[in-house]
Amino acid sequence: MTKCMSSIHQFYTTRRRVWLKWRKLSPTAFWSRSASSCRTAPEVLHPDERKGASCNQVTKTPHKQRSSCLPVLEHFDQQYSQELGDLWESARSVLLDPQSWQYGVLLNRFSILADLPQTLRSQGFSLLPLTDGCKFFSPDLSAVSSPQKRAGGDSQDIPRDPIEDSRLRPSSADVALDRDLQLEPSFRLTRPPLRCYINPRPVRFPSQPHWPGQLKQYYLLNAASLLPVLALQVRDGEKVLDLCAAPGGKAVAIMQCATPALLCCNEPDPHRRGWLARTLESFLPSPLSSRVTVSAQDGRSFGQREEAAYDKVLVDAPCSNDRSWLYSRDSQQGAQRLKERAKLSALQVQLLRSALSTVRPGGVVVYSTCTLSRSENYGVVETVLNDCPEAEPEDLWKELALPLSGCFSFTRSGCGGETLASTSSYRHRLGILAFPQPGKTWGPMFVSRIRRRE
Ligand SMILES: C[S@@+](CC[C@H](N)C(=O)[O-])C[C@H]1O[C@@H](n2cnc3c(N)ncnc32)[C@H](O)[C@@H]1O
After folding, report:
1. Is 361 helix (H, G, I), strand (E, B) or coil?
2. CB neighbours of 361 closer than 8 A, spacing ≥ 6?
3. Residue located nearest, by CA, to atom 21 of ligand 1
4. Running DSSP on this structure, what letter comes out for residue 445?
5. Residue 268 beta carbon below 6 angstroms from any ligand 1 atom
6. What is the pLDDT of residues 69-119, one digit of tens each?
7. Closest atom of ligand 1 to CA, residue 225
8. Residue with CA closest to ligand 1 atom 1
9. Mean pLDDT value of segment 304-318
10. What is the pLDDT of residue 190?
């Protein structure tokens, strides 16, 4: 485990070095540039790769040429062709072609966005069509008719950004925050839904560097990372625990969906905890700091210390991150990771058990990973359910997979050869797996929701 953490640490240290280098090369005030529109911007390299590229310019060739790690690929070939059948072939083709990867842009409701949504749309981005399937959305917002629809334009199927409707547009981030923190009974009607822009092409916005005292406008992510957050269905005023929280992407997404009474972000690795703290500082205004705390516990013992204390718990577990492992630095690192892999399921089981103790009766735990591995996904959930009679798995197929099937590819059996009809309904409830496919390159992301019976 220690070795696993140190390799994760090493990976992120390198990334940070690249970013620091870029920041040094870009002395101009970042935020003054970031607010400007770049509609006429040519396609440029990512700021990590080219000095001085300004914000909001899109990247068409986001990655340097990368080569995959053969021992990892061979291991995946053997395991996943057995577990996923034909699905593995197409997932494999995407994972081996970083040039085809899509990127999501999650908007920060606490930041002033200026003309960012328009800029995104002009670059071919559109809103991830989150509908009533994601129950936390206000019906009032989903009912807002878009200017395009009203004009009978040809893009009627493209969801419009509800906050751009003049009735909902805040005049500044402060107004949005006041609305959330002080006018609580009414903000349910005006709270913006989670807004994530996606692009059918492999285009990505540059990441925004951390700038103390300035809120970032957006978080770049694999849009499948939102699925666990959607499954959690956080409501205003709830107590939420993010058990494995760094670098903080899902914590940021949770805060876009609702204003919990408490969001405790836990991360035992000190370096990653620092990164988590920076993410929170970059996305959340300081008045929210009393509601969002950072803790440093081993998640496996959290349940003993804070039994039944939370309404919702997210276990975004440490896992064999397939995308990243395929591009291990060298075959030595790849082999080391594969050696550690066998131990991961045991850790994940302990974390999930701990989460189930931490959640109150009636509350829910969402378990997620970013691997296709059956033992780390369905296997972990099944093991925990077997010895936890008060835990009840919930079916996410209708709620999440079906409404979002236009953007993501899902399976719920974890096996390509297995038809839906031939699998038991209990098995269906163990979780859904978003797996990368050409044109829908999001994932892998496994999500399972378990309710603790009253
Ligand atoms: C997949 S990452 C979480 C990503 C994060 N949820 C996000 O969206 O940005 C898993 C995290 O679990 C942490 N972790 C590892 N062992 C842990 C443990 N025993 N208890 C809690 N967290 C742990 C890792 O350091 C890592 O930061």
Report:
1. strand
2. 308, 390, 452, 453, 454
3. 299
4. E
5. yes
6. 999 999 999 999 999 999 999 999 999 999 999 999 999 999 999 999 999
7. 8
8. 318
9. 97
10. 45
- How far is the CA of 355 from the CAs of 184, 293, 364, 375, in angstroms? 29, 17, 9, 19
Candidates 365, 141, 132; CA nearest to 244 is 365
Answer for the pair 159, 127: CB distance below 8 angstroms, yes or no: yes
User: Would you say 113 and 107 are in contact if contact means Cβ atoms under 8 Å apart?
Assistant: yes
Contact 264, 293 (CB under 8 A): yes
Residue 371 has pLDDT above 80, yes or no: yes
pLDDT at 54 over 50: no
300 lines ligand 1 (CB under 6 A): yes
The fraction of the chain above a pLDDT of 70, given in percent, is: 69
Q: Where are the domains of the chain?
A: 218-452
The confidence score (pLDDT) of residue 183 equals 39
pLDDT band at 188 (very low <50, low <70, confident <90, very high): very low
- In 3D space, the residue among 363, 314, 368, 398 whose CA is nearest the CA of residue 133 turns out to be 398
Catalytic residue among 370, 388, 407, 415: 370
Query: Catalytic: 370?
Result: yes
Number of alpha helices (DSSP H) and beta strands (DSSP E) in the chain: 17, 13
What residues contact residue 283 under an 8 Å CB cut-off, 6+ apart?
108, 110, 111, 215, 216, 219, 248, 252, 255
By mean pLDDT, which of 82-86, 171-175, 210-214 is the weakest?
171-175
Ligand 1 center to residue 248 CA distance, Å? 9
Phi then psi dihedrals of residue 105, to 5 deg: -125, 105
Superfamily of the domain at 218-452: Vaccinia Virus protein VP39 (3.40.50.150)
